[in-house]
Amino acid sequence: MSEHALTIALQGSLLEEQTPLSLAELCRACSVQTEWVMALVAEGVLDPAGTEPGHWRFTSLHLHRAGIARRLQHDLDINLPGIALALQLLDEIEDLQSRLHSTGQY
Amino acid sequence: MEFKDYYRIMGVSREASAEEIKRAYRQLARKYHPDVSKEADAEARFKEVGEAYEVLKDPEKRAAYDRLGTNWKAGQDFRPPPDWNEGFEFSGGGFTAGDAADYSDFFEQLFGRAGHARAHGGGAGFHAHGSDRQAKILIDLEDAYRGTTRTLTLRHPEMDAQGQVILREQALNVAIPRGVRGGQHIRLAGQGAPGSGLGKPGDLFLEVEFRPHPLYRVVGRDVYLDLPLAPWEAALGAKVKVPTPDGPVEMKIPPGSSAGAKLRLKGRGIPAATPGDFYVILQIALPPATDDAAHAFYGRMAEQFKTFNPRSRLGV
Question: How far is Cα of residue B163 from the mean position of the Cα atoms in its chain?
């Protein structure tokens, strides 16, 4: 990377609800197979908008969850139902934390 | 280079069986997995445990490591003795977990860099799209209010012409747009792994995470602050100066406010087309009764509020 390239800041695009990822894009972003993402959707770990795989739209949240799922599987050797359970419990922790954050800390 | 005591890292004895080592690894990996763990140094510990397991689970590597002897202390300056690995053969991979970038100097000195990277795409005349990459970027809450630029350095294992794994450093200067939320991704087209042949490079997805802030808590686009008030400010109402990530503002506290009450500054959360809100949660701070005058004043208050029972709701 040259000095010159560093003087200009790269302008990325923010993943917003209006600029979702397709199934193929999500798979590429996570380096996973289509079947694996489809299994996550079937298990209820991911809930993309759109009725069929060709029309599924994934958000930043889905990308975040798919990343956790992949790491849990790779690092801890957890199967799909286990991943679903772990993510559900992580959601609950986050919900509790949000509630804790939105009330005072005494 | 510091010596690493892999047995101590795994919490097992030098005589531990393969089963015990595996069990210890499973427990520690769950405890320190960065996605699950709330421990402050989870990521570093997870890598350390992964490296220890990489050595202790492999009979050859473990035997070679054991040959270093028991006199080494963790953190001690270490240089491998000559011929320490005589009779052992580690080349040609055998690395199953972790990335080349994750191992310590100590590990690499003993066992070399992780074998050969899995080849993506391949030979001449083959055009493949480069793979996408993901990385995390830590920013301050204030950055989401103003936008900023950040320089980050990513390290990727890559294969050189001889098929050896080398770490390539990639420095990037990235614009962090105003209004970004925690957990959101910034997509940088073409900054992923290079494609092969005429294939296009992949994209880089940067996941934004806020550094914990000493004052503010973030929930989605909303921002929360605990605001201490003097008892008379809460009782009589007041105009007080309140910090926000966008700079201090004047806020009106209504008379008769109580601890735990939530006041909203609409639209002063993280900016967006529909910006988040800024909330202050009131706390009452008591001046200490450390000198005689203050002591006497609290006495007069007790006299004045004789009929006030702060525990009336408790039924006593």
Answer: 33
CATH superfamily of B216-314: Urease metallochaperone UreE, N-terminal domain (2.60.260.20)
Class of domain B133-210 as given by CATH: mainly beta
Tell me how many degrees the CA angle A39-A43-A45 measures, rounded to the nearest 5: 95
pLDDT at B85: 66
| CA of residue B6 relative to chain centroid, distance | 24
ipTM of the complex: 0.82
Tokens of A15: 């993943």
Of the candidates B174, B179, B185, which has its C-beta nearest A9's C-beta?
B174
Would residue A68 count as lying in a domain? yes
Q: Which domain holds residue A26?
A: 16-103
Q: What is the third-level CATH fold of B6-79+95-113?
A: Helix Hairpins (1.10.287)
User: Are A14 and B185 an interchain contact pair (Cβ–Cβ within 8 Å)?
Assistant: yes
**Interchain CB distance below 8 Å, A76 and B260:** no
Q: When comparing pLDDT for B84 and B167, which is higher?
A: B167
